[in-house]
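Example record used in the benchmark description.
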Amino acid sequence: MADGELDAGGADAGDAGDAAEATDSEGPAHRWWGWIVDEEGYRRRVAILLAVVAVLGAWIAVLATNASTNESRDAREATRLAAESQTRNVIERAAVDTEDQAASEVGTLPFRRVFASTEGPLDDEQLDEAEEAILAEVIGDERSLFDLRIEANRLKLAQAATVETRVTWNARASQYETVITVLGVALFLMGFTLVVSSRVRPPIAVPGIVLVVFVLGWAIHIYNKPIPDTPDEAIAATALGQALVDDGRMAEAIDAYTQAIEADDDYEVAWRGRGLAHFAVANPDILQTAAITSSDPVASDAAVGDITRAIDLGGDDDPIALFLAGMVTFADGRYDLSADLLERAVELNPLTPDVQLARSAVEAARGDEAAAVAWRERAVDLLRPTDPTNRTRGLASGYYTLLQHVVAADPGQAGIAEDMLDQTIAGESALFVGRDMTFDAPDAAELVLDDLDYTDGELTAALSVTGAADDDVVTVVGYELPAEGAGWVQPTELFYVGPPTRGRPTTITAQRACVPLAHRFDLYVEGVPVDSVEAQGGAASC
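Model output (structure tokens):
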């Protein structure tokens, strides 16, 4: 017999002997080895396994297709709701502007069509009817502005909920595609073992089997993950709650948000809204003037509890929720926590000067003037270059109010807060006049309060500045005291920059839940604080 034949025969005999030994042995390793080297049996088992994996792959592919279909459906629905929401918001904005304009016109335009049948002066009832008639021209006779606001809120919330569902379906479809890719690797490994010798099969077959088991578990995990589906009842109740907050009806808003939470305990928007409503119940003018008037621990705990729940439900990715939580904890004197929450809000959306100004006020309360200045400058940089606008005035007004809260709540940091006030008022004055302040004020400059009257929500004030040159830039900053122990509030309207005033009266509408106990006016000349006068207000209502 040839040497080659002897070698072949020897090899065959050796393999057979190994197989027999593996088969006869009772150890698990030997049984495994016998399963691997049993060629016919191995091929049969691999074929069955490949068929099972193919069925598994087909099932995952169906799930991926279903997820993609649902994602496309929700994308179309989100687009439709976005268009409707935008339309309603435009109509609502037009209605609000029309209502404001109507209020100013009804007493001065008797020639309008709606007044044609009226003779003589209009009484309050006729004025209300005239405003309603003008408003009906914009939104129709069958709807009120309040109803329009509810509908606009509902569409916006429904669109946001649909987008969240769409994003989840999209993520699920992408995950299924990844699973199918991994399953393809497992199929390759299992199939590849059919073309290699029995001795190298284990390091290839074992990872393939492990991948199959892993893919099956992964697919089941993805399938069992919940798809967000906010009930219509929760959306409708939340939309009502938002409209009630805008209307200043906080107790009713809390009830509406509670209904939304009962319909969906995981609805972050409802928890956040109820937290704001709790905060506003204790501080009725917080949304109008940022006035912090109460330290009621019950209301504070309710607000913090609801907002914390909102953050736990996903609000940690929502800069609005974090900002609200930062303001509530600021009002509660928890400055370190407030700083952390506001900084997280800035990280999510760095283009938010209002959040960064609030962060500056928190640093003033913590006694870090350098950090307070740095945060203020970050906010100012976001507004440059710009002319003074209602937005810049509103941001400055809120910032001054927060700093005044620091002065009242933390006398030890009053010096820092007052320095920040003076610096920022000089900066805002420069923005109004288009040049830097000289910081050279005459010693004789004085502010004289010629007249002040606050009646039924209307403030009339007449102020004169004496001792300043005609080309000096004077700034008069007005404040209200909403409650005993509270900080002074700087309303947006009580701010004047220009040449020295000569006693010309100014009247502004200042509807407040908290009747001002006192008014204060600070005079700056060329950026330097030179005088301040106070006047008695009304009886306390907060």
